[in-house]
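Human: For the file, kindly provide a plain-text protein record giving the amino acid sequence and the backbone structure tokens, at your earliest convenience.
Assistant:
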Amino acid sequence: MLKTIFNTRTGSHTDLGLLVLRIAAGSMMLTHGIPKIINFSAIAASGKFPAVLGSSEFGLSLAIFAEAGMSLMLLAGFLSRMSTIPLIVTMLVAAFYAHAGDPFSSKEPALMYLSMYLTILLAGPGRFSADYYIGKKLQG
């Protein structure tokens, strides 16, 4: 019993955990990206979205690209590590630029997403991903 509790070997449980993490991170981030797509004009015109390279529309487009596009790729486990990079950048901007002067409680959601994306970047998508099957095919 104790061997099971203190087991640190990786295997199918790790792959299942990475699948759960990818599904959770991807689907929850879609709840931020989809409303931005639907309300693009209103959000861009409000002036409340950070201007990136002088344009809030460009910054909003980058956020949508990460929050919706990369989240879908993450859900599929396709180019998972690469798809976390725009998400990591978006969460860094959210935590340390958009909420720079806000209390920690406002930064906390972005930092939690950031930790999820960093974990996927470092650990990979796991066996239950398109990346795994494509990699397996490429190896022969």
